[in-house]
Specification:
By secondary structure, the protein is mainly β. Helix content is 7%, strand content 38%. The protein is built from 5 helices and 40 strands.
């Protein structure tokens, strides 16, 4: 792999070169937020999340303190907004100077506000003199308890007929980026084809260990469509411009450096070994029930852009009625919204019927069984929940006849009756809350189950029909111990339960 000395790129636009920009019209490429914290891979007991941000709209890097006027301080970060137009960059006032980004130091671009340092750009292209630069700042957060090494692989769409700006830089490139070269070692992988589209791939390896609980400096900072883009180039890009981002992490303990650790876990990133070798499932953004059902039936990952109500549910889970089926291991990113399912109140009815995949940042309500883990598909894999709340159902999660695919839940809330058959495989709940819902505050696991850092409401009961282990849990706000275990676990199943700490 060719080593690159990528730092903050200097973009030089001369006023005499604007002719190509002026003729570009009609089709507009949009920067898609198709890369999300779903696209993370880890080895060892490591948990990371990937975040993307931009500066608050209308707040320049040297705007000063605007808090008195609109509550937004200079350089404040907000979540990246999808679907923004990506136009060719244009220098303001026909300026023919260098729009270089000031070399950022190790204490710049850390988590929090960007503080203007009195230099031209504080690591960002000078937007006083250059229009149509797109912020896209990619961070990684270590959400686990283990220090980690990580790298972020970035694929920039670059169809045949266009070129991506790499060293040595020339005036002929149609696409360029601005990156953080102080905190990362950058490598140029080259052009690859993903689902029939050509991309330029780069790897950013974080120079330091990312300690548990910390967020990184960003890797990618900005992208730009240069003045070299023509109408033909815009047609090649189409209506959306895609940037695919995936982050990989390995525990730091036992490895001398990041490259050794990450290559041991995932191999060297090359044109034939990268996260999208087998293609990429671009999530579909949905706003209503019809869009949600159609996307899932097509095997797509989905992102909810609003609350979705299914009324009435009309699909089958092979036992009863369900609101939606997840049969191909898809991801449902609730984006903080609610999925409300009506017309699924029968004993075997469910809100979500799944045979595997990830459900995150979602509230599920309205059905008899919130999430029904089933086997009615040729595809089975672990079911994973992250930041999911199940409330207003009778069963929270349920499994009658699974495929031993296993189950994990993180930072989630289960209000009601939680029960699953041994055919689930194993179950693990970490930093989850259990409370009353629809008159029930009860759990009956028939499969080996582990609870780590979980909170149980006072009066909650657990009937341990298989081996159950509690670590750092509480009941009614008090530490769960071997001595008070009987306040949670039913007396006739105490022999199946143990407290490790």
């Amino acid at each position: 792999m060719k080593k690159s000395l990528l730092k903050n790129i200097a973009l030089v636009l001369i006023s005499s070169m604007l002719t190509a920009t002026l003729v570009v019209g009609g089709t507009v490429a949009y920067l898609q937020d198709t890369d999300s914290d779903v696209n993370v891979m880890t080895v060892g007991n490591v948990y990371i999340e990937q975040h993307e941000y931009q500066r608050a709209e209308g707040v320049a890097h040297d705007a000063g303190d605007m808090g008195a006027g609109n509550g937004v301080t200079e350089g404040a970060l907000v979540p990246f907004v999808q679907g923004q137009a990506l136009y060719p960059a244009v220098p303001k006032n026909n300026v023919s100077t260098d729009y270089s980004a000031e070399q950022n130091t190790e204490d710049l671009f850390f988590w929090g506000d960007y503080v203007y340092s009195g230099t031209a750009g504080n690591g960002l292209w000078d937007d006083n003199n250059l229009s149509n630069v797109m912020d896209k700042m990619v961070f990684v957060e270590n959400t686990g308890k283990t220090d980690a090494y990580f790298r972020t692989i970035i694929a920039f769409e670059c169809p045949e007929g266009m070129t991506y700006g790499v060293q040595p830089y020339t005036q002929g490139n149609e696409l360029m980026n601005n990156v953080n070269g102080a905190s990362y070692d950058w490598e140029e992988v080259g052009y690859v084809t993903i689902d029939g589209v050509r991309y330029w791939v780069e790897v950013a390896t974080y120079k330091n260990i990312l300690a548990a609980g910390n967020q990184s400096h960003p890797s990618l900072l900005q992208v730009v469509l240069t003045h070299n883009a023509t109408n033909e180039d815009m047609e090649l890009l189409g209506d959306t411009y895609e940037i695919l981002v995936a982050s990989q992490a390995v525990q730091a303990d036992g490895f001398a450096d990041a490259e050794t650790a990450l290559n041991a876990g995932f191999g060297d990133i090359t044109t034939t070994n990268h996260p999208w070798v087998d293609g990429v499932n671009i999530p579909v953004v949905v706003e209503d029930a019809d869009g949600l059902v159609e996307a899932l039936e097509s095997g797509k990952d989905v992102v909810l852009n609003d609350d979705v109500k299914i009324d009435p549910a009309g699909m089958s889970n092979a036992y009863g009625t369900t609101g939606i089926n997840v049969k191909n291991g898809q991801t449902i990113d609730g984006n903080g919204n609610t999925l409300d399912i009506k017309g699924a109140g029968g004993t075997w009815d469910s809100g979500i019927n799944t045979t595997g995949g990830l459900i995150k940042d979602l509230t599920v309500t309205g059905s008899f069984r919130g999430i029904f883990i089933n086997h009615n598909s040729s595809h089975t894999e672990p079911v994973v929940l992250e930041n999911v709340t199940i409330d207003g159902t009778t069963y929270t999660i349920s499994c009658d006849q699974g495929a031993y695919q296993n189950f994990e839940a993180f930072d989630s809330t289960f209000n009601g009756w939680t029960s699953f058959a041994k055919t689930l495989g194993t179950a693990r709940f970490e930093n989850c809350k259990f409370g009353e819902g629809n008159g029930y505050a009860f759990c009956r696991p028939y499969a080996p189950t582990e609870f780590v850092g979980c909170e149980f409401e006072a009066g909650y009961r657990l009937d341990a029909r298989a081996s159950v282990i509690f670590t750092d849990c509480t009941i009614g706000g008090e530490d769960l111990t071997s001595e008070n275990l009987a306040t949670l676990v039913t007396s006739d199943t105490l022999n199946n339960a143990s407290v490790l700490k």
